[in-house]
Structures are given as C-alpha cells and as structure tokens.
Design a protein that fits this description.
mainly alpha, Glycosyltransferase, 3 domains, two-stranded antiparallel ribbon, two-stranded antiparallel sheet
Length: about 450
C-alpha cells in the first residue's frame, strides 16, 4: 500500500494494491486490517502485482529497450540524409562515374578474387568463391569489348579464368564454389546457381575473348559443363545458363546440344511462369527473392534470338511488373529486400537492399531496350543504376568513389561499410553496361559521316 504519489498511483491500479491519503495514519491502519482479514483480496492483489512485476525484471526490460530501438529505426528509416539533391543521369548526360578498378585489384591475388572485405580490406578468413571469380571474368571481358582493357586487367582475367578451370571437377562435370585462403575446396559440388554463373562467364569468353587460348579453354570447359544444365531445377541457374548459351552460340551457332538445352531451359522457364503467374502476380514463383531480374532477362534475350514472340512478351511483361513493385513512392528504385524477400500475399521486405539486384535490373532493362528500341527501358536502366549513386530510400551512395568499391547493402538506417567482391563487381558490371548503352545511344544519334 502507498500514498498516491504518481508512480504508486500508476502501479497500484487494477487491484494490485491499496492507495491511502497523504498524512493519514488511520487510513493506513484501516487498509492493513482489511488486507489481514480479507485473505481472498490479499492473494488477488499479490497475484496481480506479481504479473505486473514480470515486465520489470531485467531480461524483460532489455527486450522492451530492443523493441523501442527497433521501432525508432523504422520510424526514421526513410529520413533523407543527403545534403544536396541528387543529379540524375538525365540531368547530366554523359556523366557516368569514372571507371576505377583499384578496389577490385586490391581484392584479388594470384589465386583469384576474395569474397568479402572488412570495410575496404580483403577478408582472408572468408576465402574465395567461384561465383565472384566468374563475375570478375565477365567484367574483364566486358571492359575489353569497350576498349578499356589494360595489361594489368588482362593478367587478372587470366587469374579468374584459371580459378574457373581449377574449380571444375571433370569427373562430376560440375564446378566447386567455395575455397579457403589456404586453397582447400570447402565442398565437393557448388550450387546450381554457381554452375550457371560459370556457364555465363565461359560463354562470354568463347564469344569475345581477345586471346585464342582463352577461347579454346573456355569452349572446352563449356562443352564439358553444359550437359548437367539439363538437370537444373533452379530458375536462376536456368537464366544464367541461357545467357551463357546465347553468348556461346554467337560464335558456335551450329552446336546442336547447346541449342537443345536452350530450348529445354526456356520451355521450363515459360512453364514455371504459366504455373505461378496471375493478372496480379506476374512472376515465376510464389516468392520474389534474389537476382530477380535475371529471369525476365533470360526470356527477353532468348525470345529475341529464337524469334519467339510469346517468350519475348512474357519476359517483357514480367520485367514491367518487377519494375512496378520495385519503385518507391518517390519514384526511386527500391529492390526487394533480402531480409524476408516478397512472398505472394504478404508484405515485401524493404531492406536489406543488395547491389546485385540493381545490377541485374540494369542488365535486364538494357536487354529490353535492345529487344524493343523503347526508350522507356533506357530510363528504367538509368533509374536502377542511380540507386548505386544515392537515388534510393536513404539518399545514401553505395558506390565509394574514393576506393572504386561498392558497399555491401542498404539497411533500414545506414549503408554497410564493407566493400565485398559481389557488391563491387555488381557496380562495375552495371557501370560497364551503362557505358556500352551510352555508346550505342550516342552512335545512334550521331549523323553519318560524309
């Protein structure tokens, strides 16, 4: 029991105690007598007080603090933090960031490219993975195509190609993925997505490598690794394989097996869409998850090259829908967050947004432009690319111009300060593709020479 000062008045309501007037000894005595003689009332007050007290133990108080902090983060997650408005690429045409490979070179050694970084320092403990070395090889080949190669880049390209060659298990016909810093493979077989990444890089290498030895090695590996693609069940593995097959067939169009597997994988992807899609849910699965734009990208590319109108239209339709759900209220690009993804009929995850989603979207929109000549897709590619530069939910740049690296993700209240290989390569790949697009648009606009 207590006199009714504020805290006591709050705690002792709902039959958890007795309040007595200030400076009234008789009232206190009366309340004591009542509780001593009324056992049911006394026990009821004791139980009620005990229940309330459970919310005051330290473990529960700590949980409430965490909940309060989380709510504060959510309430302030969309606060704009930039000090000046972002200039879009439309407002400053031709002003793509300067290509800077410093961080990619920093992340690479004579074995390959490291997976992760602690801030901007390579994290040796996490070792290497074939996925990132495949992406790095693709980037090197793209830059060669743009005329931005260099002796140092060619040397690194050879290292990345050597990593893929070493990763391939010729008995199983599959690639391994993860390797420790002391060059031990950490698994016997990589994921299906890992196989698809390798086929993408090898197909590109066959199509456009500047050195004949690269092409011969890549063609040999591609032919040995391709048959298992017929067994893949991952739609993303299908998509990466299809992109690799398209590149491969640019040079070796008569390869019957590659053509057959392309027909098989596109049929599977079309069937997956038919099974899952509705008018409101124009997608291939029950969840929009990761590297999403690669699925429509593969159909757009394959539909265009195979002269299949239905396939092309399915790819364009699903990409339009994906762009719609990946647009914020302010019109900026907002990729599906990896902290829960987007299950059908449920709320989508807003964070953590990953650079690889922006890069895949840039690539898919550029392919859509090449298939349709519709400038809307150029605008969409630019919008997705500007996510790297700060046109996003927090107004914070993920690209670090001082290092040439890219931060690993956009959280609800900050950007990650780590600049790993996947993120850095995602930005550099997107930049290379935007540069190629800009070159194509400029060439198209220029009048022919006399």
């Amino acid at each position: 029991m207590s006199t009714p000062y504020w805290h006591a008045a709050e705690l002792l309501t709902a039959e958890r105690g007795k309040l007595v007037p200030f400076r009234d000894a008789g009232a206190i005595a009366g309340a004591v007598r009542e509780l001593l003689h009324d056992e049911p009332l006394r026990h009821s007050m004791r139980k009620n007080a005990y229940k309330l007290g459970r919310d005051m133990v330290w473990s529960r108080v700590a949980q409430l603090y965490v909940k309060s902090f989380e709510q504060a983060r959510q309430d302030h997650s969309f606060v704009r933090r930039r000090s000046s408005p972002i200039k879009t690429l439309d407002e400053q045409p031709g002003q793509l960031p300067e290509l800077k490979l410093d961080h990619m070179f920093r992340m690479s050694d004579s074995t390959g490219i490291f997976q992760h970084a602690s801030f901007t320092v390579p994290n040796f403990a996490e070792g290497y993975c074939m996925d990132d070395n495949a992406r790095a090889l693709v980037l090197a080949l793209m830059l060669q195509r743009l005329g931005q190669g260099s002796p140092r880049l060619s040397e690194r390209a050879a290292t990345y190609a050597a990593f893929l060659n070493h990763a391939f298990d010729r008995q199983r016909g599959r690639f391994r993925n993860f390797m420790s810093f002391d060059r031990r493979w950490l698994e016997d077989v990589g994921s299906e997505d890992c196989q698809g990444h390798a086929l993408w890089a090898l197909g590109l290498c066959v199509a456009q490598a500047g050195q004949g030895s690269f092409q011969m090695l890549a063609a040999q590996l591609f032919e040995q690794a391709l048959p298992v693609a017929a067994e893949f069940t991952s739609p993303r593995a299908w998509a990466f394989t299809l992109i690799g097959i398209d590149e491969y067939l640019r040079r070796l169009s008569g390869d019957r097996r590659a053509n057959q597997i392309r027909e098989s994988l596109t049929a599977k992807l079309m069937q997956r869409y038919a099974d899952a899609a509705t008018e409101e849910w124009c997608w291939f699965e029950e969840m929009v998850s990761y590297t999403n734009a690669k699925l429509p990208h593969a159909l757009i590319l394959s539909g265009r090259c195979m002269n299949d109108t239905a396939m092309l239209e399915t790819g364009l339709k699903s990409l339009r829908w994906l762009m719609k759900i990946q647009t914020s209220d302010t019109g900026s690009f907002r990729p599906i967050g990896s902290n829960g993804f987007y299950p059908r009929g449920k709320e989508r995850a807003l964070f953590d947004q990953q650079p690889i989603e922006a890069q895949a979207t840039v690539s898919a929109c550029i392919e859509a432009y090449h298939a349709t000549s519709d400038m809307v897709w150029v605008a969409e590619a630019r919008r997705a690319f500007e996510w790297f530069l700060g046109r996003n939910d927090l107004g914070l740049a993920l690209y670090d111009a001082s290092t040439g690296g890219c931060r690993d993700g956009l959280h609800m209240d900050r950007v990650s300060q780590n600049q790993g290989a996947e993120s850095t390569l995602a930005f550099l790949l997107a930049l290379a593709e935007m540069q190629a697009l800009q070159n194509a648009l400029t060439s198209f606009k220029e009048p022919p020479g006399e």
